[in-house]
Automatic annotation (TrEMBL):
Modified residues (Cysteine sulfenic acid (-SOH)): 605
Compartment annotation: Cytoplasm
Record carries keyword tRNA-binding: no
Active site (UniProt): 330 (proton acceptor), 619 (proton donor)
Family designation: Belongs to the malate synthase family. GlcB subfamily.
Major subcellular site: cytoplasm
Entry keyword set: Cytoplasm, Glyoxylate bypass, Magnesium, Metal-binding, Oxidation, Transferase, Tricarboxylic acid cycle
Protein name: Malate synthase G
GO cellular component: cytosol
UniProt domain Malate synthase TIM barrel: residue ranges: 326-560
Length: 717
């Protein structure tokens, strides 16, 4: 049972009040904070509630429109006119550009990978912050980026040779020599503004001398490509360097130049206890105190934030370069409420609590003299799951109030607008305009966007199989339109245009082949699931000059709004029984595999084996797709509820077997009566009734029940 304390008419969970008052607040008294926060809640909660009610009203009108035309083909012009009439589609604003100040170069102008991790996990949070730099040799050696795997228990010299060959070939592509190859480098000698390189007995240099950025301790050199640094490491005492003619022991890449510390889809934070962990970890990143100790190889290791990187430029001047990614924090959206702070006996919006506490914690970074997260003096917040310009304008108002509450200059808080809901992507320019003095980030989120696509068009007909959704007409228009709109609104050189997550963390060879499509699409960042993936994805930004592409794309034909609004329906197409069963089993296995960990163990994001035992990164966005997909098929008779129940019961033993080595795992079969199994079933059978098809309300209720059950067991009841 959580104890509460009174703060200006608010009932605040005692541990949260203690954390905020004792550690978080800087330059603001507790009394001023709670007084201002209480006033903010009373002013803004009714506005928040009205926006959520508008979502439901628009959805009801869309459902009614489809039901009135059941069995008829959808006329694109009629559909667009209807959406305009009800205010779902808003007028395009006159041309404008964002006007943002004090934006760090990592966000404004440097193209590179972006890591996304649950801030609730301290080790993951630190790994992400430290993923600014990564060893290319390690990334290649330990993954399938190079075919095969290391043989034996020790170092596999044959595989090591393949790694070195791959890395040197990459250098030949992105930092070529005037003569010869990096494969044959025998010496590197800096000579003032350039570097003399001996290869194959011949003296040469870089084909482009301007790529030489400087020297490092030990005789290594720094190169620069498309704004990213590449360190050719020299260490003749290392096992690799001592056998290399030039002493080259590694190639280190500037990798995740930015990272999102997530309070939302990848965490399972359902109460004040959980939120305190979230906020304390974020605070530790901002004030530099976060630590995580763990055992490895029988020894206790402690992870902390990396120091800056020091090198000497060609003019002999010492350069201090960031050793950590610039961190953004993703707050929750407008929907969910929390019992961590109550008002008049009711829960308050979780997104408002996130806004106040995460921004207050980030003030510790603004006050630091070294190892700052933002050298430009800004705080970066990513705001997800907003539907349309009004909701984005409300976010602008919310963070303005937070700035007033904490005594920060206007627009200190910069916002990332996630383009992941259908009404936002259909009105993206108007959304950006609503926050044009803060907006430094937009990105496409295929997963949540697909979930919202299905829910919005739930009554329109049966949607195409999930495996075909990536070929749907709307998707290309969505991905291209996001870039087109960002460029038209002045994002080039000022803000990030991002693309979504690589969801196969063990398949780096495929990622290297496929994910180069993101920078080629004009996106100056894209999400990766691990530091290793960030290092490998960084090679794409060496090969693609995103800034140059963006200039070209500014004049291309804009993506079609009609295509964007084309519903992904089967239009009477019939599937075989085997096709339906396969789709059901695939979706049910995915739902169960994710939900059972979320509910029973509080794991918000993890590698979940799919039906073919391939590990995929799963979070609430993937769950939203699968649950809405099956709800849609059940509604339109593609499958029955009994068939879904049968699939759930078939897949539960498979998921149990996939988790057999986890001592904390609670099997779902043969009883099929646990909290997690029931929650998974409810997500499908109650899917139509969930607000915008979101999974959070049901998941939070189930996780709270599971925590209560665990508490009873601990107490011996």
């Amino acid at each position: 049972m959580t104890d509460y304390v009174d703060r200006h008419g608010l009932s605040v969970a005692a541990p949260l009040a203690d954390l905020i008052e004792r550690k978080v607040l800087l330059g603001v008294t507790p009394d001023a904070f709670w007084s201002g926060y209480a006033a903010m809640l009373r002013d803004l909660m009714p506005v928040n509630a009205a926006l959520l009610a508008k979502r439901e009203e628009l959805q009801s009108q869309i459902d009614a429109w489809h039901l009135a035309r059941k069995g008829r083909e959808i006329d694109a012009e009629d559909y667009r006119a209807f959406l305009t009439e009800i205010g779902y589609l808003e007028p395009e604003p006159a041309p404008f550009e964002i006007s943002v100040e004090n934006v760090d170069a990592e966000i404004a102008s440097i193209a590179g990978p972006q890591l996304v991790v649950p801030v609730m996990n301290a080790r993951f949070a630190l790994n992400a912050a430290n993923a600014r730099w990564g060893s290319l040799y390690d990334a290649l050696y330990g993954t399938d980026a190079i075919p095969g795997a290391p043989e034996g228990k020790g170092f596999d010299a044959a595989r090591g040779a393949k790694v070195i060959a791959w890395a040197r070939a990459h250098l030949d592509k992105v930092a070529p020599l005037a003569g010869g190859s990096w494969a044959n480098v025998e010496a590197m000698v800096p000579t003032g503004e350039t570097v003399l390189i001996t290869t194959g007995g011949l003296e040469t240099g870089l084909a482009d001398p301007a790529q030489f950025a400087g020297t490092t301790a030990g005789g290594g050199i720094m190169l620069r490509k498309n704004g990213l640094l590449i360190e050719v490491v020299v260490d003749r005492t290392s096992p690799i360097g001592k056998n290399d003619p030039a002493g080259i022991s590694d190639v280190r890449l500037e990798s995740a130049v930015t990272a999102i510390q997530d309070c939302e889809d990848s965490v399972a934070a359902v109460d004040a206890e959980d939120k305190c962990v979230v906020y304390d970890n974020w605070l530790g990143l901002m004030d530099g105190t976060l630590r995580d100790s763990f055992e490895k190889g029988g020894a206790v290791m402690t992870r902390r934030l990396n120091p800056d990187v020091i090198y000497t430029d060609p003019n002999g001047q010492k350069v201090t370069h960031p050793g950590r990614a610039v961190l953004l924090v993703r707050n929750v959206g407008h929907l969910m409420t929390t019992d961590a702070v109550m008002i008049d006996g009711k829960e308050t919006p979780e997104g408002m609590l996130d806004a106040a506490v995460t921004v207050a914690a980030a003030m510790h970074d603004l006050a630091r003299n070294d190892r700052k997260n933002s050298r430009a003096g800004s705080i970066y917040v990513v705001k997800p799951k907003m539907h349309g310009p009004e909701e984005v304008a409300f976010a602008d108002r919310l963070y303005g109030r937070v700035e007033q509450l904490l005594g920060l200059p206007a627009h200190t808080v910069k916002l990332g607008v996630m383009d992941e809901e259908r009404r936002t992507s259909a009105n993206l320019a108007a959304c950006i305009k609503a926050v044009k003095h803060r907006c430094v980030f937009i990105n496409t989120g295929f997963l949540d966007r697909t979930g919202d696509e299905i829910h919005t068009s739930m009554q329109g007909g049966a949607v195409i199989p999930k495996t075909e959704m990536q070929d749907a007409v709307w998707l290309d228009a969505y991905e291209a339109g996001n870039v087109d709109t960002g460029l038209a609104c002045g994002f080039a050189g000022q803000a990030q245009i991002g693309k979504g997550m690589w969801a196969k963390p063990d398949m780096m060879a495929e990622m290297l082949e496929v994910k180069i499509g993101h920078p080629k699409a004009g996106a100056n960042t894209a999400w990766v699931p691990s530091p290793t993936a960030a290092t490998l994805h960084a090679t794409h930004y060496h090969q693609v000059n995103v800034a140059a592409l963006q200039q070209q794309f500014k004049t291309r034909e804009k993506a079609s709004k009609e295509a964007l609004l084309t519903l992904p329906l089967m239009h009477g197409r019939n599937l075989s029984d085997d096709e339906v069963t396969h789709e059901l089993d695939n979706a049910c296995q995915s739902i169960l595999g994710y939900v059972v960990r979320w509910v029973d163990q509080g794991v918000g994001c993890s590698k979940v084996p799919d039906i073919n035992d391939v590990s995929l990164m799963e979070d609430r966005a993937t769950l939203r797709i699968s649950s809405q997909y099956l709800a849609n098929w059940m509604l339109h008779g593609v499958c029955s509820g009994d068939e879904i129940d049968a699939s759930l019961r078939r897949m539960a033993p498979k998921v149990d077997a996939q988790n057999a080595d986890d001592p904390a795992y609670i099997p779902m079969a043969p009883g099929f009566d646990g909290i997690a199994f029931k929650a998974a079933r409810d997500l499908i059978f109650k899917g139509m009734a969930q607000p915008s098809g979101y999974t959070e309300p049901l998941l939070h209720a189930a996780r709270r029940a599971a925590k209560a059950r665990a508490g009873q067991y601990r107490d011996g009841r």
